[in-house]
Amino acid sequence: MTARDDSQPLAAFLALAAAVKLLVILAAGPGVSPDTAGYLEFTDAILKGWDAVTTVPWGSDVGLPSLVFRTAGYPLLLAGAKLLAGAHYQYVVVAVQSALTLLSMLMIFRLSRALLASDAAAWFVGVFYLFSQSLLYDVEILSDSLYATLFNVVLFGTLGGLAGVWRLGVGRMALFGLLWGYSILVRENGLYFTVLPVLLLACGGRRAALLIPVFLAAVAAVLAPYMLWNWQRTGEAFISVAGAANWLRPGFHMLRFGYANPFDGGDPVSQLVRQGMPDYEFGAQVTILEALQRQLGLTPTRLQSYVFGRFVATVTEYPVAYLKMVLTQLRPFSLGSVLTDPAFTLNEFFQYGPVLGQRVLPGVSLKGAVAVFRDFSLGGMAGFLLAAAGLAVSTVLFFVFALGVPWWAVRVLRGRAPADVRFGAALFGWATFFTVVGAFCLVHFEMRHALPAIPLALLGMAAVIREGRAKPSIA
């Protein structure tokens, strides 16, 4: 497949996207969250010098030190911004994040237009991603935006190369491997998603499959030195200990949802939970972990291994409750909203972003409807109808995507549709979205975790819609 001349629509889209990003930065400014402090602690250690960043408290009474709980990828960006702009570093960070998102959008728009042979389809993918959660996380001092950009540059870059939109050789694949390795140092859970680019290359034919060792070698070239550095700092080789703070979460979710109580036994974790667990929020969980670490005399890595074993035991003992917990987190109405619901995006931006700190549109529920009619106003009613319309349309589009790709696959298997590159892109977008969301639902899912997979899902959605219009019969 050869790339179409997309210079004019691409320029128009990038101009719109750049204007929106600039307006958001100027109007809202940078935002911070409770997680920002951990990144800044690592950043300040980097700026203090080598001794500060390599001196890590280690043992059974140190908790989860920030210098190994976080990875260095995002703090390096913050350190560079602080060196460049001092007290105004936040504006440099959000400007860089927004610019990098624009770079990924360039690839996303070009590939969508080339694959689907449609300006409208490219605008569909580009505009919905522009007004997705990227609107919020590009201006937050958090790793989500940077990780999503690296994720999409690598996957869209590889997919575009396989589709013939641009060339994909050894050098470019090695670069993608280095970027992917760095993305893992931005968000360590990206290590699990390395299966996605490998799967894409494996399905791309013999020549593409030969690039897998190149890609993995480049990834290893980033991660191996980092693990050795941790070994030099602590005496143990690892990437981070962030997992220690997450493996107990499924048990707490099961307890909170009322599906089971995995903490009614006599093991140390259960005893500590019963002794003092005021709520199931992250802070309370970390307090339990620190007490467990002191009680059992565990280093942070051994604590991580211990709670992972506890997670496996919980799943084994309560498989039905665990499955219910996973399905509860896999919320189709919310997943539709995260893809194509501007009302949801507005609420997310104003509630969790730099301004207001509250929702601007009412929730679409019986309780929300009662509140709107009780405190009736034209503005309130208009907001409720807007939110309801956004939820309805996004839910329909989500099920078109979620069920449409399997329907398309059945037609391909029956020989009633070609297994062409458009089908391959839709199938990969479907697999990527549900792999990312599903993997987080196995432990702990927040809507921001879906951000990296949104563009590929939108590409798959647009492809299904075009296929459905071209082949209206499902026979």
In short:
By secondary structure, this protein is an all-alpha fold. The protein has helices at 7-28, 36-48, 50-54, 66-69, 73-85, 89-116, 119-130, 134-137, 144-162, 170-186, 195-202, 206-209, 212-234, 249-257, 268-275, 282-296, 300-317, 319-329, 332-340, 342-352, 366-374, 378-413, 421-441, 454-470. The protein is globular and about 65 Å long.
Explained architecture:
- The chain is mainly alpha-helical and 475 residues long.
- The chain contains 24 helices and no strands.
- It has helices spanning 7-28, 36-48, 50-54, 66-69, 73-85, 89-116, 119-130, 134-137, 144-162, 170-186, 195-202, 206-209, 212-234, 249-257, 268-275, 282-296, 300-317, 319-329, 332-340, 342-352, 366-374, 378-413, 421-441, 454-470.
Rg from alpha-carbon coordinates: 23 Å
**Helix fraction by DSSP (H/I, runs of at least 4):** over 70%
Can you count the helices? 24
Count of β-strands: 0
What does the average pLDDT come to? 91
Looking at the chains present, what oligomeric state does this protein adopt?
single chain
Largest sheet: none
Structural class, from secondary structure content?
Answer: mainly alpha
Content of β-strand: under 5%
Q: How many angstroms separate the termini? A: 28 Å
Low-confidence stretches: none
Which geometry do the CA atoms define? globular
Helix-strand pattern, N to C? HHHHHHHHHHHHHHHHHHHHHHHH
